Amino acid sequence: MELGIYTQLHMAGPSRNRDAMSLLARKLDASRRTLFSPSELTAVFAEIRREWLLPKIFTDVEFLDLALETKTLMKVQVTSTYPLHTARYHRGKFSAYQLALSLRPRSYLSHGTAAFLHGLTHHQPDLIYVNKEQSEKNNSGSLTQPNLDRAFSGKQRLSKFVVTYADTKVMLLNGKDTNRLGVKQITGAEGETIDLTDVERTLIDIAVRPGYAGGVTTVLQSYRSAINKISIQKIAEMLEEIDHLYPYHQAIGFFLERAGQNPESLSALRDLGLKYDFFLAHGMKKTKFDSRWRIHYPNDLEPVT
Length: 305
Prior knowledge:
There is one protein chain. By secondary structure, this protein is α+β, with helices and mostly antiparallel strands. The protein has two domains: 71 residues, no CATH class; 203 residues, no CATH class. The protein is built from twelve helices and 13 strands. The strands form four sheets. Strands 3-7-8-6-5 form a five-stranded mixed sheet. Helix 8 crosses helix 11. The longest helix is centred in the N-terminal third of the chain and has 17 residues. It starts with a helix and ends in a 7-residue tail after the last strand.
């Protein structure tokens, strides 16, 4: 009868246990990370097998059970509104942003979270917004004024995929494929590396999905804070590369002008076209119309002073 690694190590004595977990701890600490996915741990376990010439009967499950039993690793206890299909384990402290970014590969912080971290708003969102891009797709459907009117007449669809850890709530977003356009790295308050959208990309995203940034009033305030930090030409070039079906450049131009940007500096956005009457947000009831940008906006939206 074959014995698992946990049983065999115990039979070999406490020193063998300590050696195994000491080696695991050294390898994990050498990575300079504190959060690990099952696949990352599998790779470390495989290294230990090779170095110790252990047979394959020493399974990943047995390695993990021993690591948890000895508290070399701890499981991150999360709940989610939809099946997460993964788990996370930690060794040491980690920030809420690190956890959010670890949940799906190649994801990055976006929308209201990116706006907060860039200092565009002083109101920290209740949710951490983390974006994982979808696979490449072609724009479908034709753009006509009736189609626009119909698409923006109802409420904007928002993600319901929320992962909760203690007091932290993370909303998982599935964004348009952009090949991570405008994503940069910063160092967080706890010294961690954070992937997030830069200021220009953040302004685009919160204009497209104001519901992920506190609504149009908060978005307008963020635009006002960003005026001296941005390149209008860079925003226009990003919009052309992202190639949204809807003319969000009209909303962005409106936000910038309303926030105090010199209208003459916005020609790069105007050059993208003003062919349609557009909408600043979905499902607006009482609106006004800005003829310069051909856009409907809430009648109680005031310029930022």
